């Protein structure tokens, strides 16, 4: 008579932690590629790897050799194919572990009133400009970059390095302005650049009314630690993009809360 060895199923606290961490990483990966072409690529690669192990088990030498070449460079292929997703994942990890987040908590507990007052003074010109642009249905894309990547932004932008002001933002996005076609990038408490050509999102499940401006606003928040305000030229509707997701038709009260939190 054979007895079943229950020692094989010993489950410790670290085993539970291991499972939870893997589940968290898979969930974050799912969030990063959900609704993008990368999701289809990931499924294709998974099928390719699965097929390799099937043909290997069936001793199909020719297919095993061909598919084995892909498997041998698996990690490198994943990094190349999912370059943007890997970048976004590392930005997410760095953002959560950054000293700036720790300073923000310190400020929240010990200097909240002063911080809110100073922050409102910073965002008021932006909100006022958005009100004006919305009322005239002037299309606009304003990006708030937490870290200003000169190589990413300056290659396709006109450098401004100007103080944030309502009139400057309004003048940039006027249809007769040579800088209106593109995005304004705000970082380090300045309007750093304008007329920026940004990467478009690869998401396939966006509303039909989203044009290039919305797709660029979402795309830049996928590739960088940034948020974006999008004002529709057709409807004047305000949208807010963050981490590849977009909130549509937001009010100015919502916009103020979002900017207070993120900017």
Automatic annotation (TrEMBL):
Pfam families recorded: CdaA_N, DAC
Enzyme Commission identifier(s): 2.7.7.85
Superkingdom assignment: Bacteria
Enzyme class, broadest EC rank: transferase
ATP-binding keyword on record: yes
Alphabetic keyword roster: ATP-binding, Cell membrane, Membrane, Nucleotide-binding, Nucleotidyltransferase, Transferase, Transmembrane, Transmembrane helix
Molecular function per GO: adenylate cyclase activity; ATP binding; diadenylate cyclase activity
Catalytic activity from the UniProt record: 2 ATP = 3',3'-c-di-AMP + 2 diphosphate
GO biological processes: cAMP biosynthetic process
Stretches that traverse the bilayer: 12-30, 37-55, 61-82
Family according to the record: Belongs to the adenylate cyclase family. DacA/CdaA subfamily.
Record-linked PANTHER family: DIADENYLATE CYCLASE
Chain's role: Catalyzes the condensation of 2 ATP molecules into cyclic di-AMP (c-di-AMP), a second messenger used to regulate differing processes in different bacteria.
Summary of subunit composition and partner proteins: Probably a homodimer.
NCBIfam families per record: diadenylate cyclase CdaA
Protein name per the record: Diadenylate cyclase
GN (gene name): dacA
